[in-house]
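Appendix B. Chain record.
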Amino acid sequence: MLALAPDDASRKAGSKLGAAGPWSEAGSSQEGTVWGLCRGSGGKPYRTVVDVADAAGPAYKCSCPSRKFPCKHALGLLLLWAGADPVVPPGKAPDWAAQWIDGRRQRTQERQRTAAAPAAPAADPDAARRRAERRAERISAGAAELEQRLTDLLRGGLATAEREGAGLWEETAARMVDAQAPGLAARVRELGTIPASGPGWPVRLLEECALLHLLDRGWLRRAELPDGLAATVRSRVGLPGSPDGPPLRDRWLVLAQYDTSDARLTTRRIWLYGEKSGRTALLLSYGAAGRAPELALPVGLALDAEVSAYPGAGQLRAALGDRTAAPASTTSRPPGVTTSEATARYGEALREDPWLESYPVTLGRVIPVPADRDTWQLADADTDLALPIARSAQSRPGLWRLVALSGGAPVTVFGECGHRGFTPLTAWQDDEGEAIPLC
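Structure tokens predicted for this chain:
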């Protein structure tokens, strides 16, 4: 239940509400719904209801003003229910809970009917083709303009980037948005954060400019590329795609789930591992800024389901299809590799996708140890090799959770291995231990 929490603060607050004291009129149904009234700071108690039977994952409704999903009241109610406390007896849902539950059931049935219905033919295939061609022309014009700006930057010297500030990059990114190339716009904005960002920034800027130049040239000469690499270029530029791979049925282990947010969007990443196929798949789902996406698969679950891959060479993104059984807890995990094998896998993946920031791997028998006063690394227990932990993960609570879990002994760690280091996401203490989320 605590694995459903969107952050540590919600986890702690929800744990405090997992007792009978603040709750009244709580109950549950055989269909998998739980409800109750939670006393808060106001005059009226908060109405909380949770539906754990939905095929898309748990859903929550609470009258509190929190914008987190699930909120602390929903977490507390689930903990109370999971503890088999008599304060949550079986019964009939009150009208306010039943109305929401019935509405969800109806919407789920409508989505299933829509998915089962044959797809309507395109109203005008020629018009759709012309729109795609016009967008491709605009992207090509934007890529050509970006090439000229990169040329001007290198001709004038990288020092000019520090003097001109972020305004140049923001204006260039806006031009890429106008060209309908959001992928190029995002990379341009990243360039704007590099100048004066610390020792060695000119080298980092040159490296990122080279990758952006490579993406530009890949788009402008996409007709000459192999189909898989051309699809990767289209995806990196920002053109939307849809899963086109054959459905792969397997027992998928949920290895990690974490959210990233910006001013417009919350993106949830869920990593899966197929026990039979040995494949790793990435599920992406989105929610409005400040709101969690609907799809939730807590770490440590296994589900029998189908996934379909998106196009692109080396791409791991997939879409979740039909599920043949309800998710269940498991202590299974992927086989671990050494730190040298992890970097080799990342290198192989870069051959397929040169713009890849990181690659998912499971490290076996590693020990978190300090590299120096401010940084940590994961050392192989059986060799003298180690992987640095990414700086972005150094200050996260998950790092200290990993250190405490290890206690100086080898652990198994799943995470993302990239040019900035290794980001730990999940760990197992021993062969029979449960998965411990680190993010």
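Further analysis of this model is presented in Appendix C.
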